[in-house]
Specification:
The complex is a heterodimer of chains A (448) and B (271).
Chain A: H1 3-43, E1 44-47, H2 49-59, H3 64-94, H4 97-118, H5 130-133, H6 139-150, E2 151-156, E3 165-170, H7 171-174, H8 183-195, E4 198-201, H9 204-207, E5 210-211, E6 216-217, H10 220-251, H11 256-269, H12 273-287, H13 296-320, H14 324-332, H15 337-366, H16 369-372, H17 396-405, H18 414-447
Antiparallel strand pairs in A: 1-4, 2-3, 5-6
Helix pairs in contact in A: 1-18, 2-3, 3-8, 4-6, 6-8, 10-13, 10-15, 11-13, 12-13, 13-15, 14-15, 15-18, 17-18
Chain B: H1 2-18, E1 25-30, H2 35-48, E2 53-58, H3 61-69, E3 75-78, H4 84-92, E4 97-106, E5 108-111, E6 119-120, H5 122-129, E7 147-151, H6 156-166, E8 176-178, H7 181-190, E9 194-198, E10 207-208, E11 210-211, H8 218-222, E12 229-237, H9 245-251, H10 256-265, E13 268-269
Parallel strand pairs in B: 1-2, 1-3, 6-11, 7-8, 7-9
Antiparallel strand pairs in B: 3-12, 4-12, 4-13, 5-9, 5-10
Helix pairs in contact in B: 2-10
Classes of the chains: A mainly alpha (448), B alpha/beta (271).
Chain lengths: 448, 271
């Protein structure tokens, strides 16, 4: 080949490599940046007085006198709205029934939307569900709900050949000439004074239990569940995996049985995770009766089985990479086989084994399919260590799916979902960084 | 090494058995339709008695029944009655499946808000789902092919739909099957030409159609003028006893608080 052609080929190859790396970094940024920004919104946001009232009532958190003063201010400032509504209602009951019929549905709709924005009306009975007990706790949601109060959306279906067209009718016009008309400009201009939003850092998102099925509170139960499941899986998989790897590399002599075992391990690594989930249900719960229902124990065992092949293979590679001279030196000094393995080979192979463990740990934390049938539930409390043996738990991976597809009010609580995503990604990231640091330390020690 | 492993496993199994009989633990599994009720009940019960741990999974009525048969849940929530085959299997497993009706629900036919169609007859819905009517044009709507959304076959809502609407006719091959009520709603919210069916708690942001000129509401479901309404169930092994965690959970639907919760979530308390 001419030198010129070779150069061109060489350069285009380098360019292609650079391009694909660039593309990967770009994709990573495109995925991670919105995830961090929107996920961060679960922790840092402009919290309204309703958020502070909620923390005080549910978790006894915050400066009670200061918040109570704020609540009084909130009640005072929103009072005119309800006064005007009451005035109009009194006027309607006095007036003729045609007028009452004309305004009744619109008034009902208005009161419903006001309730969503500002919470139950003064003097109204306390609703059962927490989601109805409070107005909007976040300013960004409050702005959206304000729009619902100011404007009634309807659809114009006059042209049947096309779909309907959205029509936005200002409620101020609907109630023109009534005492209620005044509340719309009032709300538009004074909502911030009523709800008193303030930059809030809600660290409790990570350490509080959720309540009213993730409407409020945090994700502590999910975080803890994911931690238990991951730690449990590592607890089972790591010792078993390392022992298997030692056996396969140091003790086993090559033969048809061993070849069958290695092939099986490789095959197992390629089995889809949902199959492990079903196996876990059938074997650990329905056959062995490890726990009567789903449990963290059954879930971590299932996850352990799933990551076992990766752990074995990476440990095997790491052990094989230890120079033969290490082993020969140990044996020549009179060390036994077991002593050689535990005293010389394993320490030298540890960084490599840890790499495999890190990869598996990230996978165990993020997998959803194996825990659907064996461990995960939509809601549940954070567990104590003992309860993990018998009880199921919410977990980040599963609950992200649940909030994204199944929840009855998923549009209202997108921020919780993004917060969970952020928490899961950060958790895996932190685990990885910690393991990398540990690995670096061990390698350094070995070299020094 | 081997005996150590065996020892470890037996310790783990033993520990599991010792802690299995926790009286404050209630495991609820089943219908995604009943999910909002179950979750709100769990919330309420745990707030009243903080030592309780009630876990709720929403995996479909079929899975709820299976879990109850395998003794893997305490309460199976279902949006359809148990089938005879399931009852028989329960009997063989030594489980007496006791039925409690917690609430009433109307199967709501939902379309995108921009859809000008206001109502359908049962026959029309059957024709749509069996693939005879394929375009909204035929129903007085825009010229758009209908996107059929259905629950998967594990769902109680799917079976209610089959018995109440399809009546033996087969759902057409073009239907898209999704895994929960929430997913149907989400699909309809984002697809202008879609039609789906859900429980009444999942009607936010979509247009609910009248069926045979009746819109589903507390009134029309109770007086049975809405043609496709159904009860929602909770099944337990044996009659739920008041005073136990499980019993109180199931019987909450009979208390004034429970009825209020059912209403607030969007369903209709039993009269």
């Amino acid at each position: 080949m001419r030198i010129g052609t070779r150069k061109i080929l060489d350069r285009s190859f380098t360019a292609l490599g650079g391009f694909s790396i660039g593309l990967m970094i770009l994709a990573l940024i495109l995925i991670l940046v919105p995830m961090f920004i929107r996920g961060g919104g679960a922790l840092g946001f402009r919290g309204t007085i309703e958020h502070r009232r909620l923390l005080l009532e549910k978790f006894e958190r915050g400066n009670r006198p200061a918040i109570e003063a704020e609540i009084r201010r909130f009640e005072e400032r929103r009072a005119p709205i309800y006064r005007q509504i009451a005035e109009f209602e009194a006027e309607l009951t006095r007036g003729d029934s045609a007028r009452r019929r004309q305004y009744a549905p619109a008034l009902r709709d208005l009161k419903k939307n006001l309730g969503i924005l500002l919470g139950p009306a003064p003097g109204a009975p306390r609703p059962m569900l927490a989601r109805d007990q409070f107005g909007q706790t976040r300013w960004d949601r409050a702005v959206i709900k304000l729009d619902r109060v100011l404007i009634r959306e309807s659809w114009d279906y006059s042209d049947p050949t096309r779909g309907g067209v959205r029509v936005r009718v200002p409620r101020a016009r609907e109630f023109e000439g009534t005492p209620v008309a005044g509340i719309f400009p009032f709300l538009e201009n004074h909502l911030a004074e009523i709800l008193q939003p303030r930059p809030t850092f809600y660290w409790g998102f990570l350490t509080d239990e959720s309540f009213d099925s993730h409407f409020f509170g945090g994700i502590w139960a999910e975080l803890l569940g994911t931690f238990y499941l991951t730690a449990g899986a590592m607890l089972f998989a790591l010792p078993m995996g390392i022992m298997a790897a030692i056996y396969l590399t140091e003790y086993a002599t090559d033969g048809p049985v061993i070849r069958l075992i290695t092939t099986s391990i490789t095959t197992l690594a390629g089995v889809p995770s949902i199959v492990f989930g079903l196996f876990g249900l059938a074997f650990f719960i329905n056959t062995l009766h490890l726990s009567s229902a789903k449990s963290v124990l059954a879930g971590s065992l299932t996850l352990a089985l799933m990551i076992l092949p990766t752990v074995i293979r990476s440990a095997e590679e790491a052990i094989r990479a230890v120079p033969r001279t290490f082993k020969e030196a140990a044996l020549s000094l009179g060390a036994g086989r077991w002593q050689t393995v535990t005293g010389v080979i394993l320490p030298a192979a540890l960084p490599g084994i840890l790499t495999g463990a890190i990869i598996s740990m990230g996978r165990a934390a993020g997998e959803t399919a194996p825990i659907i049938f064996t461990a995960a539930v939509s809601i549940g409390k954070p567990l104590t260590l003992f309860q993990t043996l018998t009880q199921p738990t919410p977990a980040l991976s599963w609950n992200i799916y649940n909030l994204a597809t199944e929840h009855e009010a998923m549009d209202e609580i997108r921020h919780v979902q993004f917060g969970m995503v952020l928490a899961l990604v950060s958790l895996v990231l932190i685990l990885n960084i910690a393991a990398i640091i540990v690995r670096a330390r061990i390698s350094k020690k070995l070299k020094g | 090494m081997k005996s150590m492993m065996m020892g470890m496993i037996s310790v783990v199994i033993g520990a599991g058995m010792v802690f299995a009989g926790d009286p404050n633990k209630v495991v609820v599994d089943g219908s995604t339709t009943v999910g909002p009720i179950a979750k709100a009940f769990a919330e309420y019960a745990m707030q009243k008695n903080p030592v309780m741990n009630i876990t709720v999974s929403e995996s479909g009525s079929g899975n709820g029944a299976k879990s109850l048969l395998n003794n893997a849940c305490d309460v199976a929530t279902m949006s359809r009655p148990m089938k005879n085959s399931e009852k028989k299997a329960a009997q063989e497993a030594g489980i007496l499946a006791f039925e409690t009706v917690v609430a009433m629900d109307g199967l709501a036919m939902i379309v995108h808000e921009s859809n000008p169609v206001q109502g359908l007859t049962l026959e029309q819905i059957r024709a749509i789902y069996s693939g005879q009517i394929v375009n909204w044009k035929e129903l007085g709507g825009p010229d758009q092919p209908i996107v059929l959304i259905s629950r998967d076959t594990n769902s109680g809502t799917y079976e209610s739909f089959e018995t109440l609407v399809m009546k033996g006719a087969k759902i057409g091959s073009k239907a898209e099957y999704v895994g929960s009520n929430g997913a149907i709603r989400q699909r309809v919210v984002s697809t202008p030409a879609a039609i789906g069916y859900v429980g009444l708690a999942f009607c936010e942001g979509v247009k609910v159609l009248a069926v045979n000129q009746v819109t589903p509401s507390a009134e029309t479901v109770v007086n049975k003028s809405y043609p496709i309404s159904r009860p929602l169930f909770m099944y337990t092994n044996g009659r739920p006893k008041a005073g136990t965690a499980k019993g109180d959970f199931v019987l909450l639907g009979n208390t004034p608080e429970g009825r209020k919760i059912i209403e607030d979530v969007g369903y209709i308390p039993v009269q």
